[in-house]
Amino acid sequence: MNINKEFYCDVLIVGGGIAGLIAAERALKVFKRVCIADSSKICFGASYFPLKATLGIQATKDENDYDKYYEDITNMGKGVENPELIKTYIKNIKRDVYLLKRIGFKPWLRKDSRPACFAKYSRNIFLINDWNGARKRANKIFRKNKRLKIFEGSSLIRIIKNNDKVYGAIFQNKDKFFFIKSKVIILAAGGIAGNYKNSLYPKKINGTCHITALDAGAYAQNM
């Protein structure tokens, strides 16, 4: 493997969907140099899948709803959920829904309060749609930021460590390989649903990034 080019950034984000763009928006508030690498294009993948209908985000009502929401999610998790991740979501989701506006979406509150498909208790639901409009707005927001470098068509091949600490990552773009040096790597690449035999997603949407994380020493755990 010949490395053709080398880059450096403070924070490297793998994945250009909703999670990746929110991570980039947050990182740019603190760090000088941020990179996004995506195997396709930003605003692509499962987050912006055109056949998807309106997406709902259930928000915690208030502090009295914390335990009930935790109960709803853990009942669905069947023992493989991540307790700390659930607590973080429950505590912050109502406050952080506005971040979707920062990446081009226009969330609105559903008029009726209702339980999610997995939930016992009802709560407020924020909705987003208009994937094409959100994609255009996000591209306009992020491509003009000179402190953000975007690598599209670039697949994560390997995470490099030095003394058991993240050192950077190797990517492949067509027949070329390049290295991005960074002490912080955020894996925001989803696509796990694309690995199932019966899936509505295109073949390009898959969870190969998670395999790379496992190779680097991470372990897989459900929410």
TrEMBL record:
Catalytic activity annotation: L-aspartate + O2 = iminosuccinate + H2O2
GO molecular function ontology, one term from the record: L-aspartate oxidase activity
Lineage, top ranks: Bacteria, Pseudomonadati, Spirochaetota, Spirochaetia, Brachyspirales
All copies of domain FAD-dependent oxidoreductase 2 FAD-binding, residue ranges: 10-222
GN (gene name): sdhA
Protein name (record): SdhA, Succinate dehydrogenase/fumarate reductase, flavoprotein subunit
Pfam families recorded: FAD_binding_2
InterPro entries registered for this protein in UniProt: FAD-dep_OxRdtase_2_FAD-bd, FAD/NAD-bd_sf, NadB
GO biological-process terms attached to the record: NAD+ biosynthetic process
Cofactor(s), by name: FAD
Keywords linked to the UniProt accession: FAD, Flavoprotein, Oxidoreductase
